[in-house]
Specification:
The complex is a heterodimer of chains A (334) and B (307). With 334 residues, chain A is of the alpha/beta class. Chain A is 33% helix and 21% strand. Chain A folds into two domains: 160 residues, 3-Layer(aba) Sandwich (Rossmann fold); 139 residues, Rossmann fold, CATH 3.40.50.920. In chain A, α10 links the parallel β13 and β14. The longest helix of chain A is centred in the first third of the chain and has 13 residues. The relative contact order of chain A is 0.13. The chains are: A alpha/beta (334), B alpha/beta (307). The structure holds thiamine diphosphate and magnesium ion.
Chain lengths: 334, 307
Amino acid sequence: MVEMVSRPYASAFEKFAAGNPDILCLSADLTSSCEIDGFRDRHPDQFLSMGMAEQNMMSFAGGLGLAGYRPFIHTFGVFMYRRPYDQLMASIAYPRRKVRLMGFLPGVTTPGGMTHQSIEDISVMRSIPNMTILETGDATEVESICEAADSIDGPVWCRVLRGSVPRLFDTPIKVGEMRELSTGDDILVVTSGICTEEAMRARAALKKAGLSIRHLHLHTIKPFDSKALLDQIGSVKHGVITLENHVTEGGVGSLVAETMADAGVGKRLIRLGLKDTYAHGGSRPYLMRYYGLDALALVRGVEDLMGQTFDITEDDLDAARVDDVHSLVKAEAL
Amino acid sequence: MRNEKTTEEIALGIRRRVYEHSMRNNGGYLSQACSAGEQLAWLYNEALNLGEPTLPMVPKPFEGVPSPNNPEYHTGAGYNGPATPDYDRLFIAPAHYALVAYATLIEVGRMAPEGLDMFNKDGSSVEMIGAEHSPGMEVHNGTLGIGLSTAAGLAYGRKLRGDTGKTWVFMSDGEVQEGQTWEAVQACAFHNIEVKAIMDVNDQQCDGAMDSVMEVGDIRTKFINFGAHCVEVDGHDLTAIRQASEENHEGKPLIILARTNPFHAMSILEERFPRLHYVRFKSEDERARMNVSIAKDLGVDPVDYSH
Ligand SMILES: Cc1ncc(C[n+]2csc(CCOP(=O)(O)OP(=O)(O)O)c2C)c(N)n1
Ligand SMILES: [Mg+2]
């Protein structure tokens, strides 16, 4: 059974930031929803409530950066780039302010529907010069995200998981590296965020079907070590599959496609993720199934790549975790 | 449609439904029923001139998002009747009030009670954060602060076309922290747009009391200075709301500030004040106590939520 960690960000952020006078914690009326309520109560001198006013918060953080602070901004990911995109560009990205953008509820991890689901943030951030992008896929990565982000000389976009988070890895994020979760020589599977756990659920079934899968997990999306990826691609016979909690345009799938095209790699690539569509509201397992982001979608992708079917059904996959909708580790609102 | 119930009865009915739903689901946007019950009941039962619903009483499942491959796509606005020139239109700007809005649709006979059982269920169109395909919704408003602008644009377009129907928007006070709200009022004043808004001023937002999150000061004076006709009333006093809505606001937007109590008619919720934005019962004991107490306040039997 995988170990579940309750609210890893809450304790990790407090441990990292408390007592460091150069770090300020900003919140836009989603303080407990971003697990920084304890920090607010215990370290009020380092906490700034900015209200539900994200545009101002972004440029304000830019100003704090100018004053030598390293603000950690907390809100749902969507509210940090859609409306205040201009402020993000002009006040943070261009001047390379050391602002740490902690975006909660990435992709379909929220039932809040279109307005709450950041499904194209990686695409947007990848195209912003000076931006670094990190994504967490387990509790250990959430626990190490603050340190990793704060090591960057410039702005950092982070996709942060909250609530009850599985522990899949035992080493912290090392910015710029990638995790090799299994070695194999048939297919390379590249995943990030919550999709990594899904790919791991399919591992035993794919092995039983006789497939040798090489699995990479990305926590650093920008900057990206294309040489390391190309080496990995070079060690598989059939091709590459990407699976991401994001639209297939501009995210990890595109990153891999660009890397392959730039190097003239002539292998097949299958990009799984949201296929040029908005999502709607629902539970995470439902949305991952409906939009093809789960273990079964990966199996179908493998079948597509290999041109054959393997008779793998839901029952052959490792059990999915089902969160209690009203479990106490969940934040109050959404 | 004919009014079969009084607005007071509808407000009570809304609270009963939201209470029952929240008890069964161990939580919900319960306090918004306390604060906004009268406002939504009044809009649907008195203020709005709406035609017969054009969508089925029992909501259809989710049928996809707007896309060139989804030609049958439609919004949930049909629950408010047809969008013809003579009828009124309504936007629920804070989409997390959806539970209260759905309860209102049921109370005024525009949606079947089964609709609420589909709330936040996988594959359902009755979404927790009202989506534009959800019953009674015409646009997505889950990102707060955009509702008044949309209503202003629609009102202006309808005025140009000579429509006689009015355009209303229900707002929340958290929205005044977003700059866009003020940009909208400014544009309404400049272009003489007579859009009508009623705002649930419950003095609370996600983190708690608004004064502890970001003070907004005297918003009535601010709205007036930005060019609105702004009236402040007790949001639980229907007579006062009626009077406010009749004020002359020629060439200006009307903004009714409905000052409300976030535990109105459910007094035990005061225990959780000022953290009432989303009420999840903290223990079985709390749930049981609140169940009995709220049932008594609302004049119903406690909910048997064990099955
Ligand atoms: C642009 C935007 N920022 C943040 C949020 C998250 N959010 C949802 S409701 C809410 C509180 C808004 O205050 P109000 O609508 O007055 O809340 P209530 O009275 O229901 O507690 C916040 C911050 C959002 N939906 N949209
Ligand atoms: Mg409010």
